[in-house]
Amino acid sequence: MQLIDNISATVEKQVKSRPWLDHLVRAGGRFQRQRGDYFAAGITYFTVLSLFPLLMVAFSIAGFILAGQPDLLNELQGKVIEKTGTFGDQINELIDQAIGSRGTVGVLGLLTGLYTGLGWIANLRAALTEQWETQTPDKPWWREKLSDLGALFGLFLALVVSLGLSTVANSGLAAKLLKSVGLDGVPGASVVLSIVSIALGMLASWAVFAWVIARLPREPVSLRSAAKAAAIAAVAFEIFKFVGAIYLRMVLSSPAGATFGSIIGLMVFSYITFRILLFATAWAATSSDNDHTEIAPPAPVVIQPRVVDKNLSTGAGAAAFGAGALAALALVVFGRRR
């Protein structure tokens, strides 16, 4: 036991001497203690569940587009018959039915999407709040749902900004700009362009992570507290996307992967992404800026009456008794004279 205690003390001393390692250990402990893996799995489930209403809305939009462009619809149905043969007529009938019910499907998709979206954002906010270890006061359910709706709308705007930056980074727009000004042939221009594209992608990821970590918990914190953690999450996320793209190309090359790879890939992608997000939140919550040590309340004060004994001497007691007796006698004599 002494040997184990000595080893533990040495390891703890080495960890304390390295602030970054000490912070990493604290963040890992917070992540495990607050059930980060459990919440990441739950959010992944709600993410997959929320996709079905979005698909309904997408099919409804496609139905409106095809209904307004008969030439495009005829071309699509011709391609279906060409690819499926005898089953083409049945598939085209299903397409016609889907186009006919596009309004109903769209309304149901929007209502169901709103319901599942509110459930998704509520679980995400609960998971983030757990990592901060904050106690939130109970609110009326309608106020909480309005808050979740506002958070969902804010997250949508953050994702739009992120997608815009990612599109600029990956669409080849920067390369076209270089070509338009005649700098595409400059040595090293392609390297600089690649670095700028990666930087823009990381900036987009950082913006989303920073907003989510700081603003989505039930008790929002400052963006300054989340900035460093969001940078770590953005780097980890970009590395994960790079490795995940290679892995998906390998998996989708097989028949089984082509059949189930998309849904499995989506679940794995969501789970790892939310683990990165929750660990980054734990990192932000355990930083020195947010280390608010609670001061123990003082011990309760007990008030008790106390009788103080002056310990009078015998002589002093006799003198006091005599003075009292003389005063009583004087009062009696004075009363008789009257």
- Total DSSP E strands: 0
What percent strand?
A: under 5%
User: What's the rounded overall pLDDT mean?
Assistant: 78
Succession of helices and strands: HHHHHHHHHHHH
Low-confidence stretches: none
Oligomer: single chain
**What Rg, in angstroms, do the CA atoms define?**
37 Å
**First-to-last CA distance:** 96 Å
Supply the helix-strand structural class. Answer: mainly alpha
Give your account of this protein's structure:
The longest helix is centred in the first third of the chain and has 33 residues. The model has no long low-confidence stretch (mean pLDDT 78). The chain has a domain of 144 residues. Helix 4 runs antiparallel to helix 5, helix 6 crosses helix 7 and helix 10 runs antiparallel to helix 11. The protein is mainly alpha-helical and 338 residues long. The chain has 12 helices and no strands. Helices cover 80% and strands 0% of the residues. It is a multi-pass membrane protein. Its main location: membrane. Keywords: Cell membrane, Membrane, Transmembrane, Transmembrane helix. InterPro entries: IM_pro_YhjD (IPR005274), Virul_fac_BrkB (IPR017039). It is found in: Cell membrane.
